[in-house]
Amino acid sequence: VQLQASGGGLVQAGGSLRLSCAASGLTFGSNIMAWYRQAPGKQRELVAEITSGGNPNYADSVEGRFTISRDNAKNTVYLQMNSLKPEDTAVYYCAARLGPRPYPYWGQGTLVTVSS
Questions:
Q1: Which terminus of the chain faces fewer neighbouring Cβ atoms within 10 Å, N or C?
Q2: How far apart are CA 56 and CA 33, in angstroms?
Q3: 22 Cα distance to chain centroid
Q4: What is the dihedral of CA 10, 94, 90, 55, to 10 degrees?
């Protein structure tokens, strides 16, 4: 299984970024997909996840600002991030699972830096 995350970068507060995660080696449409993030000195936290049926869940800290979506034809999951804040600065990881947590499959991470 390979998960390739991309789309990170440097953005000013209030700006937007879209992250992508291309998956291979798994039955993508059957997997629950997620985005996690890890800020410097902090534990990795769940940002958003989306079921195989397309139902999303979000952390309270990003609800209303971030949108997770998936394109099963492209084996890709996205994270649209709007109204970014400096506290959103972190390495963002995509993850995949078929069954209950924990997530067994992880991408390499993409860095998002939000300047004030």
A1: C
A2: 10
A3: 11
A4: 90
